[in-house]
Design a protein that fits this description.
The complex is a heterotrimer of chains A (about 160), B (about 400) and C (about 140). By secondary structure, chain A is an alpha/beta fold. In chain A, strand 4, helix 4 and strand 5 form a beta-alpha-beta unit. The two termini of chain A are about 30 Å apart. With about 400 residues, chain B is of the alpha/beta class. In chain B, strand 6, helix 4 and strand 7 form a beta-alpha-beta unit. In chain B, helix 5 packs antiparallel against helix 6 and helix 9 runs antiparallel to helix 10. The longest helix of chain B has about 70 residues. Chain B is elongated. Chain C contains 5 helices and 5 strands, in the order E-H-E-H-E-H-E-H-E-H. Chain C is about 40% helix and about 20% strand. The chains are: A alpha/beta (about 160), B alpha/beta (about 400), C alpha/beta (about 140). The interface between A and C is medium-sized, with 33 and 32 residues.
């Protein structure tokens, strides 16, 4: 799958174990066809702002949801979140913070910066899977995503 | 009654404007015409001002003009006619005229020219000029009526589509409440009221649910073409793939075998085409016979069009029903026999016709059906014409 | 996080508000649902003014769009522009499927947008999903 194709979930995670677990949980539930992973904050920015290695991506096809860790190399999660929500081209993309941090300050800061939701990663393996599954279900099925592209919007309006 | 000696409006009476400074010449021309059966009433003028004045106040069937008068060139009349937006034929009646000048005059708008020493030709020239003018005006009138009809139809269609959309859209909300609460009544009070109450509530639920389904279908039908389709180049193989994917469960449960030949790429609306194929395939599955359903999809070039077919080995359709099935909400079976509201084929027809094609079915009861439809290979043209009609309506509405 | 979840439900249709409250009240997690019928009351509730001086701050707002007096979009805009209130998660729950509405709400900062299904069973599922995710799995600011 190239970086150009439409992505359902952008997973921003640098910890290899967490990454493995999350991908496994998502794939198991068949929640998303296309999950793209980036390992640091800068790559996340490039992906979402269609720059750097992701120059060929378009603002018209954002991911349905971004699962964003906070502790990231190069650029931390809060900074990524801020840039995303400050820019009108990207502010409508749903961002769910998925972090092991239990800090109240991180929680408050995230919601203040415009995070759509905040989910804490538990230590327990089964609970972790459960959380990823339910988060995936909510944001891929229950939640209605914004349609940036006018053609997509027109199509959706035509859907019975 | 119109005939060779009549003016444009059909009577033998000829109203003429003669632009001539020699009165006796004018009289000879009038005499020549009367001699050949015209009833002539003529005004004779010789200056530009009087020409303008006459043309502004009187409707003439034709103008006879001398090429050169002392204060006026006959050909200048053409300019005046144009300014006054008049369609009156003008015949030059003149002394010697070189053939180059004559041709030039005709090019500039004179209907004909007649030499004064060959006046015998005048009646013929007048007759021909009148016939041509009458034909031209009739044609213009017919085109005008056609344009008006087209605009009226576009407006009517627009209104209908608006109505269908608004009606079904706004009806959904209160209906949702009725459906939800009758269902709740059914669930929560089952067995707590008497049997009759249970039955009544059941009917209410059924009615509400069915109406919801009808409204959804009507909305879907009215949506076709409402949102400004985007006609782009689409690969129909991808389209059919998508339609099949949307029907995965049904196809798998019934063990349906779908075969297809390579399909072309055409200019069309992607979403509508998926709907089209999906509805046809879904019908083929629904109306299956006892054997394993087989559906085959193919396309072939037929002159200016692409001709598609979706064939099945299902229950088939009787000849008297072949047109009926494309009507909206028209069903051939009871709801107990086959579910559905009878809107799928109506939607297919709307989509196909929207793209400038036709759809029909070939079938025999008990021996399956083949749905055929055509798409003009240059489907982009059709979309433009429809847009023009809509724009015409929109422009005119804005002006009101 | 407190044990009872407080939800502010903003919906002018009593039939829908009834259904929604019912689902919320019957969840496995105890919930306190306050319902208001228009946008102005919603804001009064959140600012704890007027008759809502004793109101407690909700943990989650479930907000319909087409409301009398002040519509849902205006409420959303005000909540997300107010530094005192903007961290409150707002879930838009509306019959409108219009992509324009969806886009606008996300632009205004809505946390989530859920369309009210026409079918009763699906309606219940939708409310249950909302309650399940936001109170069972997400972490909310105090």
């Amino acid at each position: 799958m190239t970086a150009n194709s439409s992505v359902d979930i952008l997973l921003v995670e640098d910890n290899p174990d967490d990454l493995e677990l999350t991908l496994h949980a998502l794939r198991r539930e068949h929640l998303a066809n296309n999950i793209f992973t980036v390992r640091d904050g800068e790559e996340a920015i490039d992906f979402l702002f269609c720059s750097g290695n992701f120059k060929d991506r378009s603002f018209d096809h954002p991911p349905r949801v971004v699962l964003l860790d906070l502790k990231l190399p190069k650029l931390n999660g809060l900074e990524v979140l801020k840039r995303l929500k400050d820019d009108p081209r990207t502010r409508s993309v749903p961002v769910v913070i998925l972090t092991s941090s239990k800090e109240e300050s991180d929680l408050v800061a995230s919601y203040n910066l415009g995070a759509n939701s905040y989910v804490q990663k538990p230590v327990d393996f089964d609970r972790f899977r459960d959380i990823v599954k339910n988060t995936g279900l909510y944001w891929m099925v229950t939640n209605q995503r914004p349609l940036a592209n006018p053609a997509q919007a027109a199509k959706a309006a035509g859907k019975p | 009654m119109t005939g060779p000696l009549t003016n444009v409006s059909g009577s033998g009476h000829l109203r003429l404007l003669i632009i001539e400074d020699v009165p006796s010449d004018a009289e000879i021309e009038i005499a020549e015409l009367r001699h050949k059966g015209f009833e002539v009433a003529a005004d004779v003028v010789d200056s530009e001002d009087s020409v303008r004045e006459r043309l502004a106040h009187t409707k003439y069937d034709a103008i006879l003009a001398d090429y050169s008068l002392p204060s006026f060139r006959g050909m200048e009349t053409i300019g005046i006619l144009r300014q006054l937006n008049l369609d009156t034929p003008m015949i030059l009646v003149t002394g010697a005229l070189s053939s180059e000048t004559a041709v030039e005059c005709l090019k500039q708008g004179a209907t004909d020219y007649v030499l004064k020493d060959h006046l015998a030709r005048l009646p013929v020239a007048v007759r021909r000029a009148l016939d041509e003018t009458r034909l031209r005006q009739e044609r213009a009138r017919a085109q005008q009526q056609l344009a008006e009809k087209v605009e009226e139809l576009a407006r009517s269609n627009c209104d209908l589509e608006q109505f269908a959309y608004v009606a079904s859209h706004d009806l959904q909300e209160p209906l949702r409440m009725v459906a939800a609460y009758t269902q709740l009544l059914a669930e929560r009070y089952r067995g707590k009221l008497d049997e009759t109450a249970d039955r009544y509530i059941g009917y209410a639920v059924e009615g509400a649910t069915r109406m919801q389904g009808l409204l959804e279908d009507l909305l879907a039908f009215s949506r076709v073409g409402r949102n400004g389709d985007s006609h782009v180049l689409i690969d129909l193989n991808v389209v059919v793939e998508e339609a099949i994917k949307n029907l995965t469960i049904a196809l798998r449960d019934q063990g349906v075998i779908v075969t297809r030949n390579p399909l072309p790429t055409i200019h069309a609306d992607h979403f509508q085409l998926v709907q089209l194929f999906q509805n046809l395939i879904a019908n083929a599955v629904k109306f299956r016979g006892k054997v394993i359903p087989r559906i085959s999809i193919s396309a072939e070039r037929d002159g200016e069009d692409w001709a598609f077919s979706v064939s099945d080995n299902g229950i088939g359709i009787a000849p008297e029903h072949k047109d009926l099935i494309f009507k909206i909400f028209q069903r051939l079976h009871t709801r107990a026999e086959y579910p559905g509201n009878g809107v799928g084929l109506a939607i297919c027809k709307k989509i196909v016709e929207h793209h400038g094609g036709r759809i029909w079915v070939e079938s025999e009861l008990g021996r399956g059906s083949t749905f055929r439809f055509t798409f003009p290979a240059a489907a982009a043209d059709r979309a433009d014409k429809k847009e023009q009609a809509h724009e015409l309506y929109a422009q005119n509405s804005a002006g009101r | 996080m407190s044990s009872t979840h407080r939800i502010l439900l903003v919906d002018d249709n009593p039939a829908d508000a009834n259904l929604t409250s019912e689902v919320l009240a019957t969840s496995e997690r105890p919930a306190q649902v306050n319902t208001v019928e228009d946008g102005e009351q919603a804001l009064q509730f959140l600012h704890r003014t007027g008759k809502y001086a004793e109101a407690t701050r909700p943990d989650l707002i479930i907000l319909d769009l087409n409301l009398p007096r002040k519509d849902g979009r205006a409420v959303l805009a005000e909540v997300k522009a107010d530094p005192e209130l903007n961290e409150l998660p707002v879930v838009i729950f509306t019959t409108s499927h219009s992509p324009r509405d969806v886009a606008r709400c996300y632009e205004l900062g809505a946390n989530s947008y859920v369309s009210k299904p026409g079918n009763l069973g699906q309606f219940f599922s939708a409310v249950r999903s909302i309650e399940n995710f936001w109170f069972g799995f997400a972490s909310l600011p105090n």
